[in-house]
UniProtKB/TrEMBL annotation:
InterPro entries per record: Flagellin, Flagellin_C, Flagellin_N
Occurrences of domain Flagellin C-terminal (ranges): 424-508
GO molecular function annotations of the record: structural molecule activity
Pfam families noted in UniProt: Flagellin_C, Flagellin_N
Gene3D superfamilies: f41 fragment of flagellin, N-terminal domain (1.20.1330.10)
Main location: secreted
All copies of domain Flagellin N-terminal, residue ranges: 4-137
Record-stated family: Belongs to the bacterial flagellin family.
Coiled-coil portions: none
Protein location: Secreted; Bacterial flagellum
Protein's recorded name: Flagellin
Keywords: Bacterial flagellum, Secreted
Length: 509
């Protein structure tokens, strides 16, 4: 049935043409924008995913900038640490030269001061954008990543850069409470540094280190082994009188000039004395021959002059302070920074004591058989010195932490004692600067690796987003040509359908 009111063919042709035009518009949009999903209307799920990923890409670009800034800052600190190491090594050469007494120590000291001032200049200049990693103690965080969890939450990750304080700052105790475990940290809280010579492990009675001679030694042979040095007397060398024999022995031992060892004859008793700072000395006597004389002892031990302070291997917290106050006016303080161990505390106290340049005091750091760190202090003054030990935490955050180069500005090689102390301490300072440079080198390597990873990750994410929303241009081109052809055919079909009512008109002529 034909109708002039309802043209079904035209309606079908029109709907078909509308669909073709819609698809053609979509294809043209893909070609012009390059995206198959340009808005949430195109594909809500894919569009939402792409927008989340695009925000992450934007964030990673910011992270790349943060890593670049951190890498530059660490590079400056590493270079400064290496320069300080070189300057300290040069300073060590000057200090070694000062060990010889037949040199101009004043001129050497002038060179050391110049090198010290240069180190101070390097420390002050080692900043990037106002941040100096070799001054102060606070750690610095470099933004390194954004970690998206399965629940959609995002957490920021950081690379922590520990500052390595290479300043000459002297430590100062805070006002926190005393460390409750001080008695387990250090052997005692108050100790006396005995003056002059010490006999037999510091025993109260000096006779414990004496060797008495009784009877006739004229037919005896005696061999004294004094800390590895042997002095022998054959039968007939000694007098029948014990007092005379003791004097002969004393004169021979003193004439041997054994370092730090002397002996006196007290009415037939050999009284040994030692001024050795850090070496206990054993004296062993071998008797032979007629053996008519009698020895009060065949072996005695002379203790070293130094008093030992043993530190237990307990955890050292940032801000913990240790102070040695001596009755002779010397005060040595070490305040720990983050990451310090008991080794740092002991070595820091040694440097602080040596920095006082007190000619009566000599120090040494060692380890005992229990793997504990030991600080030894020797007093060569004729008067005893009392040591009072204080230790407290930094609960009130007002302690001044000790700089890694503390004591460098107090090095003085113009005296024998100063030159000797400087040689020990410069080694510890060189090690401190080497460790600082190594720390910065490790962090710099990590930042560089992370920066490369972020760059590659960003590229991968961009590629992933493109695969979700980018248009396939080859496919779009082919579809465009097909739709254009369909459009032309649709127009033709609609035109034909619109001619149908005209055909009905011929029926009424």
């Amino acid at each position: 049935m034909s109708s002039i009111l309802t043209n079904t063919s035209a309606m079908v042709a029109l709907q078909t043409l509308k669909g073709i035009n819609s698809n053609l518009a979509t294809t043209q949009s893909e070609i012009s924008t390059g995206k198959s999903v340009g808005s949430a209307r195109d594909n809500a799920a894919v569009w939402a995913i792409s927008k989340v990923m695009e925000s992450d890409v934007k964030g990673f670009k910011g992270i790349s900038d943060s890593l670049a800034l951190g890498e530059s800052t660490v590079a400056v600190a590493r270079q400064a640490s290496e320069t300080i190491t070189d300057l300290l090594t040069e300073m060590k050469g000057k200090i070694v030269a000062a060990q010889e007494s037949n040199v101009d120590r004043v001129k050497i000291q002038d060179d050391i001061v110049a090198l010290r001032d240069q180190i101070s200049s390097v420390v002050g200049a080692a900043q990037f954008n106002g941040l100096n990693l070799i001054e102060g103690m606070d750690s610095v965080s470099v933004l390194s990543s954004l970690d998206r969890q399965t629940d959609g939450s995002v957490n920021a990750s950081h690379i922590v850069v520990s500052r390595q304080d290479l300043t000459m700052t002297d430590g100062s105790l805070g006002t926190g409470a005393g460390l409750t475990d001080l008695s387990t940290n250090v052997q005692a809280t108050s100790t006396t540094l005995s003056a002059s010579a010490i006999r037999d492990d510091g025993a109260a009675s000096p006779t414990a280190a004496d060797i008495s001679l009784t009877g006739d030694f004229s037919g005896d042979s005696l061999s004294f082994n004094i800390g590895g040095t042997t002095i022998s007397f054959a039968a007939g060398d000694l007098s029948a009188t014990n007092t005379t024999a003791a004097q002969t022995i004393a004169d021979a031992i003193n004439a041997a000039q054994i370092e730090g060892i002397s002996v006196a004859n007290n009415s037939g008793t050999l009284e040994f004395a030692s001024t050795r700072d850090f070496d206990p000395t054993t004296i062993a006597v071998t008797q032979g021959g007629a053996s008519a004389g009698t020895l009060g002892a065949t072996s005695v031990t002379l203790d070293q002059r130094a008093e030992s302070f043993t530190f237990s291997n307990v955890t050292v917290n940032e801000g913990d302070g240790y102070q040695f106050a001596l009755s002779n006016g010397v005060t040595a303080t070490y305040v720990a920074s983050s990451g310090d161990t008991m080794e740092d505390v002991v070595k820091g106290l040694k440097v602080a004591i040596d920095s006082e340049n007190n000619a009566d005091l000599a120090t040494k750091v060692s380890k005992n058989a229990s793997d504990q760190w030991v600080l030894e202090i020797a007093n060569s003054n004729s008067t005893d010195a009392t040591v009072t030990i204080t230790a407290n935490d930094d609960a009130n955050d007002n302690a001044v932490q000790t700089g890694g180069m503390s004591g460098l500005d107090d090095i003085d090689v113009t005296t024998n004692a100063g030159a000797s102390a400087a040689l020990d301490n410069i080694e510890m300072m060189i090690q401190t600067s080497i460790e600082a440079a190594a720390q910065f080198g490790s962090v710099a390597s990590r930042i560089e690796t992370q920066s490369s990873f972020i760059s590659n990750l960003t590229d991968s994410m961009k590629a992933g987003i493109g695969s979700l929303v980018d248009a396939d241009m080859e496919e779009a081109s082919a579809r465009l040509q097909a739709l254009q052809t369909q459009q032309q055919l649709g127009i033709q079909a609609l035109s034909i359908a619109n001619q149908q009512p005209q055909n009905i008109l011929s029926l009424f002529r």
